[in-house]
Design goal:
It contains 29 helices and 29 strands. With 939 residues, the chain is α/β, with parallel strands linked by helices. Bound molecules: adenosine-5'-diphosphate and magnesium ion. Adenosine-5'-diphosphate (ADP) binds next to helix 23, helix 24 and helix 27. It is an enzyme of class 2 (transferase).
Length: 939
């Protein structure tokens, strides 16, 4: 028990022997295990409050505020706030200097609101507010420049944007007609415009708890949690007050209309009640109703039950009634009544005065406990009520007040611990370091409250280190901060949008790319035109896709991907089985002589055959060779150019199959029968075609990008014959090398291109494939840092290193949940000092780049499928694309975006995508197998 309420002081011996008092104190003390359970329940209630389907029944409402960032100290300018309080309108002008928000200048004016307005026409209410604004601005002689305004509107609203909120229902004495169900921001803006104040723009509407959080952000570390414990104090006396800098003249303070609450920055994708998925959003927990489902029943005391019965909402707001400053006096009053009835207090004198609701105020309870030797205060407080306490009564009452307040503090702390643990968990962190803004009369000036908060958090959420910061200047300044942040974000958003606009392709752009691709395809196929086409449309001499009857045992080579591999492939009725071995090709060999390269390949084959015990077999061999080749036959292919870091001499213009055969002869390897040379796109199509006969397209999106498809022989001007079909290796990576895509290249694309080993070449590929996307992103990030949109204008020196930003980072960053430790790892590896907002923006950049890649890929494919459909004279084509490549397979959005765009661009084609499993290896064997099937075994 002593652990449970750390600040509950040990009883003095005189008190110990009063068992009634002891019992009361015990009832008000919650054991630590029970607090642990309660914290778990609170977390569960929070999750329910955020869940799409559980939200409506949740006790903890978790209201989204649409506030998606905290101040970073660069906020600057004049901001107006208008706040609707109980029966007043507060206006406030805050000037920020972009100096870390250290010393904002503030001017207040408060107006009393006539009663009839609170219950009159809605229009009259908003006209009145506009009139207050107008008068305030006239008096403060502010300029007529654009003035952003925040609107503090503490009523239950259905908010859908920062500046859009429908009033659900009035409360707190308000009942203006024709407002419920309407957007109150719009109503206020119209009223303001009527007064010719159209330079005043309502940019943010907020409830009243978020201000505290917004005022506590310090330069280094943002404040991401706020706790309001009881009423906040705010200047509410009608008249003028100027607060500025250090020489602050404080206005008289009166309690504002604030309850007990907590808000924090939640991961936006967990807030299922909004569309927002990126970044964070401030959530107003509205935790006062926690326990309304009975979950707190076992800790409710008889005193709590009395308070509840006497309240205007019996059975509701159970948590609020244990912690709220409206209720602490009441709880104490009922303890005193009960103890007096048991003769443990005020023996002999009448306590009837205590029967009146509200006679003991929470601030009196706080006064009683706040004074070290507060017996005198206790005595005078009780006497003022008309009681006749003796010395012992006074110390017992003091003890009881402490217990009531300690319990409230412990419950606040438990709720806060739940919030902190939830943040730590959902941000995937081992330890959460966070600033917590605290306000409210329970906190202000009560070290005991702070001690309890600190020690309970340590016990219940040991993984969180919370620094408590007192909020200054109340909610008005916070509202100005919300407004200022909204304005900063909006300006930033505009600049970002401008910078990214050239990368964003609309439907018409894509239709045009599709048409250009189609045009280049025709050129590439034409006998006369093909030499000048950027899309080379190379014949492959593969004229049949598998029909599933293929059988046999084959060798396969895969050269040109990330690895060089040798495989043995068994094609049987039951399916395909393979064994393979990866071999390294040293750079010296890649860039040495052709003879050395092919000798090395033969060595690897021999090694493999020995390992697989295949030396005595002569197996047909399929060779996946992923470089552009002018194919003359299935087993005759002239290398057009090396790519991907290969440059072995004496190969370009030669027949690659012949080079392999000559090497075999040099090495006296007689048992080698090269049947076919295939591109990796063709291999991919063939391996998927074995499973699905409708697979007549192959697509690669890995290091590079390319596609192949089955074209009608009559359209292939570069090969004799009109019968049947042939697979065409498009080599579409070079699309645009003739300048036809220049209009879609951005400055970033041009820089990336210039820094490659083949500038001006493979221009389409450089917009799409894994080798380049990271580079494009890197250049955009540098441009953004240059405009001070990112990293406070200071990117790490590392970010200037070519290829340091890997394309796989895009995959990680674009996944939901930016707080994932992998993302922190990336930022750390790049030595980037990125704020959370920076990482949200980085995500947008990555998304823009990968989406464009997927859309362009879709435009290319749309040209292909539409051509196939027309070739075959079909209204509707149903076709399968075999796909390979790590970018396609591992990126979280690429494939989805590709398919969606393709449906949009080629609505008459039903295209199924089939990821290939080891297309290069299996595919080469299948090409060999099909060749053997067509020509007959033994050939
Ligand atoms: P290749 O195209 O050389 O046969 P892959 O299909 O495996 O090989 O593609 C490798 C490329 O995929 C790498 O260059 C890299 O850019 C990209 N990549 C690797 N991992 C990922 C990932 N997780 N997400 C997106 N792209 C990736
Ligand atoms: Mg590959």
């Amino acid at each position: 028990l002593p652990q449970a309420s750390p600040a509950l002081r040990p009883c003095t011996p005189g008190l110990m022997n009063c068992h009634q008092v002891q019992r009361a104190l015990r009832a008000l003390t919650i054991p630590l295990e029970r607090l642990h359970i309660m914290k778990g329940h609170m977390m569960q209630a929070m999750r329910r409050g955020l869940g799409r389907y559980t939200h409506s029944q949740a006790t903890v409402k978790m209201l989204p505020t649409y506030i998606c960032a905290t101040p970073d100290g660069t906020e600057k300018g004049d901001f107006l706030v208008v706040e609707l309080c109980q029966s007043q309108v507060r206006t406030l002008l805050v000037t920020l200097f972009g100096d870390g928000n250290l010393s904002p200048q503030m001017m207040y004016k408060t107006f009393d609101m006539p009663e009839d307005i609170m219950r009159g026409e809605g229009e009259a209410l908003f006209d009145f507010i506009a009139q207050c604004v107008s008068q305030f601005l006239a008096d403060s002689s502010s300029s007529l420049e654009h003035l952003p305004m925040g609107f503090v509107f503490p009523f239950s609203c259905r908010q859908t944007q920062l500046n859009k909120a429908e009033l659900i229902s009035w409360s707190k004495g308000f009942s203006c007609r024709d407002v419920e169900g309407k957007d109150v921001v719009q109503l206020l803006q119209s009223a303001i415009n009527k007064r010719e104040l159209s330079h005043v723009e309502v940019v943010a509407l907020m409830n009243d708890t978020v201000g505290t959080m917004m005022t506590c952000s310090t330069e280094g570390r943002p404040c991401e949690v706020a706790l309001v414990a009881g009423e906040q104090w705010a200047p509410r006396v009608p008249g003028w007050w100027v607060l500025g800098g250090l020489s602050r003249c404080s206005p008289p303070l009166l309690p504002a209309d604030k309850g007990s609450n907590c808000c924090f920055m939640a991961e936006a994708h967990l807030v299922e009640t909004t569309e927002e998925t990126s970044g964070r959003m401030c959530i107003n927990t509205e935790w006062g109703r926690f326990g309304d489902d009975g979950i707190l029943n076992d800790i409710l005391t008889p005193y709590d039950e009395c308070v509840d019965e006497e309240s205007s909402s019996p059975g509701e707001k159970r948590f609020e009634k244990m912690v709220g400053s409206l209720y602490l006096g009441e709880i104490t009053r009922h303890v005193l009544i009960a103890l007096a009835a048991e003769k443990a207090l005020f023996a002999g004198s009448s306590v009837d005065v205590l029967k009146e609701k509200g006679v003991l105020k929470t601030h009196q309870v706080l006064e009683i406990i706040n004074v070290e030797e507060g017996i005198a205060v206790t005595k005078s407080t009780l006497e003022a009520l008309g009681l006749e306490p003796n010395e012992r009564d006074c110390s017992r009452v003091q003890q009881i007040c402490r217990a009531v307040v300690s319990r409230a503090a412990t419950l606040y702390a438990t709720g806060l611990a739940a919030v902190l643990s939830y943040m730590c968990q959902t941000r995937d962190m081992d330890q959460l370091l966070v600033n917590v803004g605290v306000d409210g009369e329970l906190y202000q000036g009560h070290t005991r409250f702070e001690e309890i908060l600190q020690s309970v958090i340590k016990l219940l959420a040991p993984e969180c280190v919370a620094t408590l910061l007192p909020s200054t200047d109340g909610s008005g300044r916070g509202a100005a901060m919300v407004t200022a942040v909204a304005v900063r974000l909006e300006a930033q958003r505009r600049e970002v949008a401008e910078l990214l606009a050239p990368l964003r392709l609309n439907h018409d752009d894509l239709v045009q790319v599709q048409a250009l691709m189609r045009q280049e395809m025709e050129l590439g196929l034409g006998q006369e035109t093909h030499a000048s086409a950027s899309v080379r449309m190379l014949p492959t001499y593969v004229c049949h896709t598998p029909d599933g009857t293929e059988q046999g045992e084959f060798l396969a080579l895969d050269l040109g991907g990330t690895n060089f591999r040798v495989l043995v492939v068994h094609v049987r009725e039951e399916g395909i089985h393979m064994a393979s071995e990866i071999y390294v090709i040293p750079t010296a060999i890649m860039q040495g002589t052709g003879e050395a390269l092919f000798d090395h390949i033969i060595d690897c084959i021999v090694d493999f055959q020995k390992k697989q015990d295949l030396m005595t077999h002569t197996l047909p061999l399929g060779f996946t060779f992923s470089f552009p080749c002018q194919q003359v036959g299935l087993d005759k292919a002239l290398l057009l150019t090396w790519t991907k870091g290969f440059s072995a001499s004496g190969c370009v213009g030669e027949d690659v199959v012949q080079l392999l055969r000559e090497a075999a002869e040099r090495k006296h390897h007689a048992g080698l029968k090269v049947v076919a040379l295939v591109n990796d796109t063709v291999g991919t199509m063939m391996s998927c075609g074995y499973e699905d006969p409708k697979c007549e397209i192959g697509l690669i999106v890995g290091t590079g990008t390319n596609a192949c498809y089955m074209e009608e022989m009559r359209n292939v001007g570069t090969v004799e014959g009109d019968e049947g079909r042939m697979c065409i290796n498009m080599e579409w990576g070079a699309f645009g090398d003739n300048g036809c895509l220049d209009h879609i290249f951005t400055s970033f694309d041009r820089v990336v291109d210039e820094q490659t080993i083949n500038p001006g070449k493979q221009r389409f590929e450089k917009l799409i494939s894994g080798m380049y996307l990271g580079e494009i992103v890197r250049h955009i990030l540098l441009a953004m840092a240059d405009k001070e949109l990112l990293f406070h204008g200071n990117p790490s020196p590392k970010l200037y290193t070519k290829d340091i930003f890997k394309t796989k980072f895009l995959s990680t960053i674009e996944l939901n949940g930016l707080a994932l430790r992998q993302i922190r790892q990336i930022l750390q590896d790049l030595e980037l000092n990125a704020s959370f907002e920076d990482s949200v923006l980085m995500r947008e950049v990555c998304h823009t780049v990968s989406m464009r890649a997927a859309q362009l890929c879709a435009a290319g494919l749309a040209a292909v499928v539409e051509k196939m459909r027309e070739n075959r004279g079909l209204d509707q084509l149903s076709v399968t694309v075999g796909v390979d490549g790590t970018l396609y397979k591992l990126h979280p959005n690429f494939s989805h975006c590709l398919q969606r765009t393709l449906r949009d661009l080629a609505p008459n084609c039903t295209v199924t995508f089939m990821p290939s499993e080891d297309g290069s290896g299996k595919g080469a064997a299948l090409v060999a197998a099909v060749a053997c099937r067509i020509t007959g075994p033994g050939q």
